[in-house]
Design brief:
- By secondary structure, this protein is mainly α.
- It has one domain.
- The chain has 6 helices and no strands.
- The longest helix is centred in the first third of the chain and has 29 residues.
- It starts with a helix and ends with a helix.
Length: 158
């Protein structure tokens, strides 16, 4: 099980690093600014992971007997929905030249939030609306934070 968690965490890190790098290419100018944007973006993603896991842990009492790892498993499985959207963002950007990384990032964050809610419900949460609302609300907040981060980075550094 620890190997699965490590692999899932590595996949999530790779996905969001890729999305942050793609976003940084349009927000910053020069390799240094792109790298700074990506590093700060990955740090924001880790804060989002921790915050969302905490919210899920606090709102899903059926996951508490397994400890914090039960909430982490649900969050990590749901966020794996970032994989196909990251691949699409790479294809759109590198092969078609579309500046759509921010849109794919937002879509990935929001759909992953819904998938986290579905995972929580699948793990015995029943049909309690709170089990779905909390992860989606957390993803929505992070989505807004990511847009603000991109805007502020452009104004301060760019």
């Amino acid at each position: 099980m620890n190997g699965e968690r490590a692999f899932g965490g590595a996949v999530l890190l790779l996905c969001f690093s890729t999305l942050a790098w793609l976003n940084g290419r349009y927000v910053g100018s020069g390799a240094g600014q792109v790298a700074l944007y990506a590093i700060l973006g990955v740090a924001l993603f880790f804060l989002f992971l921790a915050g969302l896991t905490g919210l899920v842990y606090a709102s899903a009492s059926h996951l508490r007997p397994g400890g914090f790892s039960g909430a982490w498993d649900a969050v990590a499985r749901g966020l794996l929905l970032l994989v196909p959207l990251t691949v699409l963002a790479l294809l759109a950007d590198l092969f078609f030249g579309w500046n759509s990384a921010l849109a794919f990032t937002q879509a990935g964050i929001m759909t992953s939030g819904a998938a986290v809610g579905a995972e929580v419900m699948r793990h015995g949460g029943g049909k309690k609306p709170l089990q779905m609302i909390v992860p989606v609300a957390g993803a929505f907040c992070f989505s807004i934070i990511w847009i603000a981060y991109s805007f502020i980075f452009t104004r301060v550094v760019g």
